[in-house]
Q: What sequence folds into this?
């Protein structure tokens, strides 16, 4: 028994000559057609997909193409449609009907899709150059959803664990660095205010502790245990302490770029941020002998990732807290890897309101996060990031709690202790998009 074919009206990105026509290459083309004059056509904000819907007034005839699809072809076509789109009958100009893919009018209005009915069809709209991807809602609220990738870490690990030491001391806000005011962020003085035009001697000495003493305590904790580390290095800070840089390299730590300065780039203009990025790369290469392959600004701007991607030499950036796994973002040039970082498994919470008040709280939180991710990793391997700062976790009472956690992690099997660049290489090798 041969199942009947389904006649489908196509009016968007699966038309001949359009990017998604490959979904219909094995289907039987019937003829060009148009709807009865009772529909409107809208385009998604990213110019990627149109939507047809029926109206009571001011409808027009929408041009398109008719195809006959087998049940298998029809099922596949429906599976490729974006969320919320649904098949429904439309009336054609000759009184016949066909199935088209519609979209709820309420969502068209809510998402602000553009009415393109007067362009004479989707192909004409695309050819007009009026589609503007820049107005696409820029946030991905879905990610991997309920189906995380079935990945495999080296050593059959349930969990990839990587520690980051932020090396910022000597690159923070300070009038000695040409800044208008002192630093106010991430210190022992919770809620500190920036002092305009003067040096803040207490703040300066807190930061100095990080490079003079805290760094070396953390270096001992990790190097004696043979645990790999990624350093987020502020270029201005790295150049002020060549002995620390040499110790990082002797321990075979990754030194990723943390930017030129440890300042807030939220309101810095794009040209200045680009100049700082280029200067950071140049200084990094001068003091370490090689360019950085990872990037993390931290106090970033809406332009940061675009600049990182356009620079073209980074294997990943970490300016995201949005997932438990790496993920790809796309541009016209090439895919770009994001390895999310953390603000919760992070000693910065010793320097914030309602954060950690003692080492036991820090240890307990890290242990609980590790245990949860490790258990989940039995069926779907995960990644855990831990963020540290020389001036914070480098203090004795906090370092003691960190040492307990390092020992706790090393006592478990099927854990991949790695650097972030190791994860980047693994992802580039095994999990390229598409």
A:
């Amino acid at each position: 028994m041969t199942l009947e074919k389904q006649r489908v009206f196509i009016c968007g990105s699966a038309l001949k000559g359009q990017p998604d026509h490959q979904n219909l290459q094995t289907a039987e083309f019937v003829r060009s057609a148009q709807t009865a004059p009772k529909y409107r056509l809208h385009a998604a904000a990213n110019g990627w997909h149109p939507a047809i819907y029926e109206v009571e007034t001011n409808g027009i005839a929408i041009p398109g193409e008719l195809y006959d699809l087998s049940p298998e072809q029809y099922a596949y076509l429906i599976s490729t449609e974006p969320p919320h789109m649904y098949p429904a009958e439309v009336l054609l100009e000759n009184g016949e009907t066909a199935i088209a893919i519609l979209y709820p009018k309420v969502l068209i209005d809510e998402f602000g899709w553009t009415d393109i009915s007067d362009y004479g069809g989707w192909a004409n709209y695309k050819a007009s150059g009026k589609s503007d991807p820049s107005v696409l809602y820029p946030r991905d609220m879905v990610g991997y959803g309920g189906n995380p990738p079935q990945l495999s870490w080296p050593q059959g690990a349930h969990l990839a664990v990587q520690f980051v030491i932020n090396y910022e001391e000597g690159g923070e806000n300070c009038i000695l660095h040409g800044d208008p005011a002192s630093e106010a962020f991430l210190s022992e003085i919770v809620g500190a205010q920036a002092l305009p035009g003067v040096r803040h001697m207490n703040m300066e000495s807190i930061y100095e502790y990080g490079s003079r003493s805290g760094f070396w305590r953390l270096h001992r904790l990790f190097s004696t245990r043979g645990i790999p580390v990624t350093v987020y290095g502020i270029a201005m800070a790295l150049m002020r302490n060549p002995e620390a840089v040499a110790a990082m390299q002797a321990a075979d730590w990754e030194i990723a770029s943390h930017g030129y300065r440890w300042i807030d780039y939220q309101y810095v203009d794009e040209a200045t941020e680009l100049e700082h990025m280029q200067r950071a790369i140049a200084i990094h290469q001068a003091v370490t002998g090689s360019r950085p392959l990872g990037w993390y600004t931290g106090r970033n701007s809406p332009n940061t990732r675009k600049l990182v991607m356009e620079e073209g030499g980074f294997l990943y950036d970490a300016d995201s807290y949005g997932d438990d796994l790496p993920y790809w973002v796309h541009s016209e040039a090439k895919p770009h890897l994001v390895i999310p970082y953390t603000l919760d498994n992070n000693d910065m919470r010793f320097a914030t309101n309602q954060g950690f008040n003692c080492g036991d709280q820090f240890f307990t939180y890290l242990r609980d996060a590790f245990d949860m991710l490790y258990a989940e990793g039995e069926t779907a391997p995960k990644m855990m990031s831990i963020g540290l700062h020389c001036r914070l976790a480098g203090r004795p009472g906090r370092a003691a709690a960190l040492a307990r956690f390092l020992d706790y992690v090393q006592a478990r099997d099927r854990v991949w202790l790695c650097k972030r660049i190791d994860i980047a290489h693994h992802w580039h090798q095994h999990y390229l998009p598409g």
The chain has a mean pLDDT of 89. The longest helix spans residues 201-225. The radius of gyration is 27 Å.
